[in-house]
């Protein structure tokens, strides 16, 4: 049997790897950042140290040029430790910021909402807004309490007020603040979702879609009461979602043009004109448990 060491030496000699390696390391030594490092440590780095650490210098240049997948996410740096040149890696700030943004977007889920809704923030909501003090304070209070103890049940907010006063914007601003604390939030336009649920009957996906929504840590139902809900949507969709969240004590947010009292009247009369007082009261009982009513007032800012 051949000696493995001799065989490997033969392969190296045949392919002139030593010469090629020398060429590559010499090129690495001419790299501007390597030259700068050597100048900074010229009183400490000897020819012997350089010769003994050519592999580290070569690794640094290769990593800097992103020729290796791992290094593409990190910035390499050279350092001198006990007469040894080492390569250290630090996270690339740009890529780290991009990853953080992607992670936040995954936690800030939206359904049938405007594409720019994730840009909302509480500071912009509060600035120069007459009639928003109470809602702004309530939003800050929720974010503070929930971020400190997410295991404790804290009712969400039921934001009611006229068109254009910023109810949806405030929901989105709260959501953005929460995802900064690594909380998963789903903000959805409920009237559009109700229409989708009717269509979901055809492919038998109603239950699976409800199950995906009902258990999210923070659920925000925008524009509830904006249309006339059928008894089926009210009881078998909205009712099922709210019942689960009540049982699991999961904070839920709402926005509506109706106050809670007005929403109860709205939910009482079904699309056929029949009054279903008890069923509407059951829905409202859950909404009142899951959220705190806050009136949002002020001018219509939608057309400014």
From TrEMBL:
Residues 137-226 form the Chromosomal replication initiator protein DnaA ATPAse domain. PANTHER family: CHROMOSOMAL REPLICATION INITIATOR PROTEIN DNAA, PRIMOSOMAL PROTEIN DNAI. The lineage of its organism: Bacteria, Bacillati, Bacillota, Bacilli, Lactobacillales. GO terms for biological process: DNA replication. This is Primosomal protein DnaI (Helicase loader). Residues 1-89 form the Primosomal DnaI N-terminal domain. It comes from the Bacteria. InterPro entries: DnaA_dom, DnaI_N, P-loop_NTPase. Pfam families: Bac_DnaA, DnaI_N. Keywords: ATP-binding, Helicase, Hydrolase, Nucleotide-binding. One of its GO terms (molecular function) is helicase activity. Gene3D superfamilies: P-loop containing nucleotide triphosphate hydrolases.
């Amino acid at each position: 049997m051949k000696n493995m060491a001799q065989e490997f030496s033969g392969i190296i000699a045949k392919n002139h790897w030593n010469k090629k390696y020398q060429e590559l390391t010499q090129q690495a030594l001419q790299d501007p950042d390597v030259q700068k490092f050597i100048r900074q440590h010229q009183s400490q780095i000897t020819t012997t140290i350089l010769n003994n650490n050519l592999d580290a210098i070569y690794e640094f240049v290769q990593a800097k040029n992103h020729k290796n997948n791992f290094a593409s996410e990190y910035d390499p740096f050279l350092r001198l430790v006990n007469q040894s040149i080492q390569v250290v890696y630090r996270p690339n700030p740009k890529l780290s910021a991009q990853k953080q943004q992607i992670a936040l977007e995954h936690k800030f889920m939206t359904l049938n909402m405007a594409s720019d809704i994730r840009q909302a923030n509480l500071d912009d909501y509060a600035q120069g807004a007459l009639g928003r003090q109470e809602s702004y304070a309530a939003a800050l209070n929720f974010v503070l309490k929930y971020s400190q103890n997410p295991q404790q049940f804290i009712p969400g907010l039921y934001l009611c007020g006229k068109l254009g006063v910023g109810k949806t914007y405030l929901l989105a601003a709260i959501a953005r603040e929460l995802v900064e604390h690594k909380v998963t939030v789903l903000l959805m336009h409920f009237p559009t979702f109700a229409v989708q649920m009717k269509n979901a009957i055809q492919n038998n996906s109603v239950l699976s879609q409800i199950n995906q929504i009902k258990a999210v840590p923070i659920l925000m139902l925008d524009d509830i009461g904006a249309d006339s809900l059928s008894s089926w949507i009210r009881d078998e969709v909205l009712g099922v979602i709210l019942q689960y969240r009540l049982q699991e004590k999961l904070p839920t947010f709402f926005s509506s043009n109706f106050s809670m009292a007005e929403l109860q009247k709205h939910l009482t009369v079904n699309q056929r004109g029949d009054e279903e007082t008890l069923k509407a009261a059951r829905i409202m009982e859950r909404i009142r448990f899951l959220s705190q009513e806050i009136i949002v007032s002020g001018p219509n800012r939608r057309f400014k």
